[in-house]
Write a structure and sequence with these properties.
single chain; four-stranded antiparallel sheet; mainly beta; seven-stranded mixed sheet
Length: 119
């Protein structure tokens, strides 16, 4: 049974840092593309950063040079290091695990972790 569980959210002041973690148990983790998404109140969910099974990374323009995504396959964990946080980064952050062979239709989401950045 696949479970995707995020952790590391919380309250931080503007300019501060947080590191989110996501464990995708029950998967052949190295075969999955992993992504972090976020949804702010009243807004649509958006992609923040993703890291492919092969290691390529992509970032939303709004977080480039501030956020870093990484993965540790042995631990079945993906991280999101967030620096220089602003109130605009306040959102629920979701982790997604999508099998790199899209035809398999294996696509899992976590329940999210709340990040609140105070001014």
């Amino acid at each position: 049974q696949v479970q995707v569980v995020e952790s590391g959210g919380g309250l931080v002041q503007a300019g501060g840092s947080l590191r989110l973690s996501c464990v995708a148990s029950g998967t052949i983790f190295s075969a999955y593309n992993m992504g972090w998404y976020r949804q702010a109140p009243g807004k649509q969910r958006e992609l923040v950063a993703q890291i492919a099974a092969a290691g390529r990374t992509d970032y939303a323009d709004s977080v480039k040079d501030r956020f870093t995504i990484s993965r540790e396959n042995v631990k079945k964990t993906v991280y999101l290091q967030m620096n220089s946080l602003t109130p605009e980064d306040t959102a629920v952050y979701y982790c997604r695990a999508e099998h790199s062979a899209a035809w398999r239709g294996l696509d899992y989401w976590g329940k999210g972790t709340l990040v609140t950045v105070s001014a």
